[in-house]
Structures are given as C-alpha cells and as structure tokens.
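Let's practice the habit of predicting before peeking. Look at the sequence and jot down your guess about where helices and strands might fall. Then scroll down.
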Amino acid sequence: MKITDILSKESVIADLTADSKKNLLEELAGLASKETGVDSRTILEALVERERLGTTGVGRGVALPHTRLLGLEKIFCAFVRTNPVDFEAVDGKLVDLVFLLLVPEESGADHLKALSCLSKLLRDETVTATLRKAVNEDEIYQIICENDIL
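Done guessing? Here is the structure:
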C-alpha cells in the first residue's frame, strides 16, 4: 500500500488553525465528513474514543489520529499542517503535522498497513522538516508523493 493510494490532493490542508486538541479533531472530522459522507459527529466521537485509549500524538510534532468506522466504504486519509497544538503527545511536544486515517470497520490488516506507511514517512526528519517549510497544499502533496515508498 502507498500513501497516495489513500490520500488525495483535496485532502491536504497547508494552514489549518486550531486552538486545542479537541478543536483540531473537530476540524479533522468536518473535513473527513465532507469527503466521506459520514456524519462529522460520528467521526469525532470515534476519534475521541480512540484518543481515550492513548494519545495518537507520536512525538516530534506529529500526530496520527486514526479509527475504524462502521459505514465507511473505503479508507480515508487526510494531511493537515496546523499551528502548534497541545495534542498530549508522548514526548510532550506540540503537534503541527497530522495525518488522519479512517478505515472501514471490517478493514482487517489494511488499517495496520496504512498506519505503517504513514509512520514510516513521518519518522524521516528530512521529510517532516520539508513538510513544515512547504508553501502550499500542492507542494505538500508533491513532497508526500516523492517520499511515498513501499
């Protein structure tokens, strides 16, 4: 699986403003709702429930909120660069790079494959530095495409 199999250019936001983790999750749920047709409240509740299990703020300014959703037809992925937000990350650092991943309830191993691809990309400090400097959505999408390796 490649990231570009699940991420469209329309699901990339270069400069989202959020004032809290909750607000950021609300914004992500709204974006996902527009793209998937699933009610934003349903998405938000699933994301909040997942965060209760443990933060998806993985460190170094990166978060990978993800959840399974009943009624979702296919995997949905979005990328957002935001102002630094306290996401309760494992390293205590503020988060500014976020990949949202929503998968159908019955997706099986695809959920883990997608998470693996996203985390592999964001472990590369050169990639994250480049994403932080990108000018707009097109540039961000191009960076992701160029570094989207299996």
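How did you do? The longest helix spans residues 21-36.
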